[in-house]
Fold each of these.
Amino acid sequence: MIKLIASDLDGTIVNHDGSISDRTRQAFLAARDAGIQIVFVTGRPFRWLTPVIESFGEMGTVICSNGALLYDLEHDQVIWSRTLPVETARKAAQIILDHEPHAAFAAETTKGLHLGEGFADRHHNFGIQAPLDLSSDTIDAEGIVKFLARSPRMPMDDFYAAVAPQLDSLLSVTHSAFDVSLLEMAHVDIHKATTLDEYCRRLGIGAEEVMAFGDMPNDIEMLQFAGHGYAMASGHPLTLASARYVAPPLAEDGVAQVIEALLP
């Protein structure tokens, strides 16, 4: 019996234009009406939950920043966060620069986004941000929930393969974008599954009672944690290879199809 549905956003239920289809929206609302808990689990910061708010209103709790932050959407407040010391970010940046001297960095904190020189480009609008200064310890007061490194020239999988093995003891490393070579780093003990597990324990729900959906490598641990983990057919090959089940692609409302089949 499924008691909780956990879903990634971008590439899973959120289309490239930032919308969620009405069929998908109705499927989640029907699941909630059937008594199933809904939790969205995303790499996005809590400030970028517009698709969820537009489709579902202020519904429940969202696991943000790849598990580093638990956010109460209804009361607009951070419930819990696990932050990364700036000293760790400095060490990670040096390791990355040794392999990719052109890398640029950014840090998502509990207060906002800090952008390093060269990180932004004309294709990505990051909204309001502050300059990134890793030489200062003041950013520790805000708490880094996600440290980002971008390569302007190395393909994503090559960038990850070059640096991830040397970063594993410092922090957790993943990636979730098809269109940019971007590493996403957090506290060494944090990924989507760790926070989802903790959230489920609070509700008295076991992993075998969880259905989860995702499309990218940052979803792999979550899909393996859930008793019913579905990779999107339109997702990354590594995610597809790691999941127990495969849902139809996003373009065919794959998540909605699976939920509809679940409900009476």
Note: The mean pLDDT is 93.
Amino acid sequence: MSTATSGTLNHVAWVLRGNPLTAVAAVGVALLCVLAAIGPWIVPYDPIASNVAIALQAPSAAHWAGTDQLGRDVFSRTVVAARLDLMIAASAVSLSFVVGAVIGSICGYVGGRLDRIVGRFVDVLMAFPLFVLAMAMVAALGNRIENIVIATAFINLPFYIRFARAEVNVRRNAGWVESARACGDSHLSVILRFLLPNILPAMAVQISLNLGWAVLNAAGLSFIGLGVQQPTPEWGIMVAEGARFISTGNWWLVACPGFALMVAVLFFNLLGDGLRDILDPRMRT
């Protein structure tokens, strides 16, 4: 094992010892991903099959999280919903990361009028409440899954454009960038081969934080009726439906999906904090 690799592993171990919640978050995110992948095959009941004869039953040995107003198993629906919510979040964040990183890197490298125009666009975009902007986009485009992904990606763009622009602007006159240009690399090649890979570790923190926010955004849109529609299992829909029955004492309808949503967002946020400590050069001193 090389000295650099050994040093990196020692640093990661040191950060995890100081902040064990990072390890818990990493394991939690991994379990969520596994659950999303295999959930439909391990749940005890069909998540969309209704049976009104057992509607609104409290948690029991047969139904661990109870049943909803149509007799559907709440636990099964919560587990299956993880795949859709995580898929929407991952797709939206991936799209916004790729587009935002490229645009921000070009602006930070080129500067001038292009940088000012894009900067003003980002300022205008961030002047709006982002969730309200996502609501407007989904309402205009239609509440389909692909439109939820597009809306969530669009409102995440400013974070990546600003971050990439600032990081590239600091590095564009560095010695190793000048060397690449002196060797005949084109400006586009310098951006894609040298500058973008150099800022990716720092952007990993933003990706993790945005994943949690994207899950919450997708659930929020579904909660107000602008996201995924019935009978598809989705955490936001389940919480919205269950909220109507809280006053009658049927608390389990929102407990399971609400807890899953809270845990997913918490794990992504904790993982982002841990990645910040791991990737921060100042933590190595």
Note: The CA atoms of residues 51 and 71 lie 5 Å apart.
Amino acid sequence: MLGLEHDFRIIDTRATLDPDESSVATHGRDISPERLEREMHQAGVVRAVASPGRRASGRSYLRANNAVARLSIDRPFVAFARLNGPRDPGDGPVAAVRNLRAERDDHHARPDDVEQYSYDDRFHGFTLVPHVDGLPNEDVLARLEAADLPLIVHAGRKFPPDAVERELLDYDLPVVLASFGGYPLDADLMNETLDLLDEYDRLYVETSAVRYREVLERGVLEHPDRVLFGSGAPDVHPNVGVMEVLTLDVSEDLMRRVFAKNPARLIPALAEGADI
């Protein structure tokens, strides 16, 4: 695919690196760091947040996180550590019963893991995918609050905005809801998330898989400082996400905020000239 022609410096807050055969087999794709970097360059993306893809059930993310950090060296990637947990993210009676008995296993994230990642200069934030990996225990979330690093949360129909509010937003840390909190293609949930931005000053959204122009424009116009560009690469070529923002009926200044200013302000390692 040909590179896009534009004058924007673009930072991507959502990319996935599959660092080993286990991750590739689980997620069903095999895209090398070199190819991902090349696709980013074609789209004009200068830096990107990267975290591991899904691990097989019962497997820790420790090795995958360290592999992503290693693969990010000398590349325009900023590593985020992916965390898991024993708690069911659902809000029904079955989830409530399960959570009464939820005990942390050896492969689940622990408070000490969060502390280690927080003080390791290879990592600049965290990623949660609750509907896949479960929710961490409260002591882990408290350690995340103490670390005060950005937490990217994959929300949507299986972990909707009201669940995010219930489980995470009482903690004082920056939370970024991937896909406007409405994956896949749920405009009602996306609009619910935008309503939450009025209530929570440290809540942000990123744009991956938000295919509704009206919803994107609402987010950018109503909350110009809290919308971050995300592509969802390599599931989607970053050119696709860039074009969706470029075709919005908003000013170039607002586009520059989404593409670069907002992500760099929230995640300093993404800023121009930052040492990564």
Note: The mean pLDDT is 91.
Amino acid sequence: MAEPGVRVLGRACDVLDCFTEAEPRLSVADLRARTGLPATTVARIVSTLLQEGLLVREGDSYRVGLRVLVWSAPARSGSSLLGVARPFVEQLRDVTGESAGVYVRQDATRVLVESAASRHSVIYRGYVGQVLPLHAGAAGKCFMAFDESALATALAAGLERYTDSTVVTRDELDRQLAQVRERGWAFTESEREVGLNSVAAPVPGFDGRPEAALAIGGPSFRLDRDEAERVGPVVAATARAIAARMGHVPAEERADV
């Protein structure tokens, strides 16, 4: 019996999600290991994606096909978030001196959808499409602090340790999220990578939950606690400005943006 269409589509997305900028070419064995799907299922999905031009075979490995680029332009032009955010991201980069970006949530992860790289020599280099965990890093903390479903999803996925500073206990996570809610922005130190710090604030949607998170990232010798206290309100104000431009901030709050 054929699998329901939605289930097949979901598994095809699971396969495509395995490819990243760091690993643009993967073998069938790699795809099986990353998805946990049976060999026959992976083979069937890969065959279909090849036929549709969504995958390209190169020897014994595969890469994402250029057909996906056809979808990128309408995706960007159709997104009010991306249409609005770019100048604010660049302005935040210029004001703080650090790499700035916008993340959206995808289940227990966050995805970088807009970025502007710092002009310093030593910088954080994120890239559009980068997938990162929710629990490690300031942007993820913003989603969890203001959206109970994001917190529940992250907890269900598990609090994996990346460094000695990664928060892996519920009590400490709850303490940090309470602090984020109190001041309206988050600061994290070396949670995902040693020496990399970040500051972020939520971009509220119509229902008050974060539609996105605006963040800056930089080396710990520049973006330390004192600097975070200085730029945190700037990041939060810029995030509110994005929300206001999208019409998500109530009129009485827009005067503060």
Note: The mean pLDDT is 90.
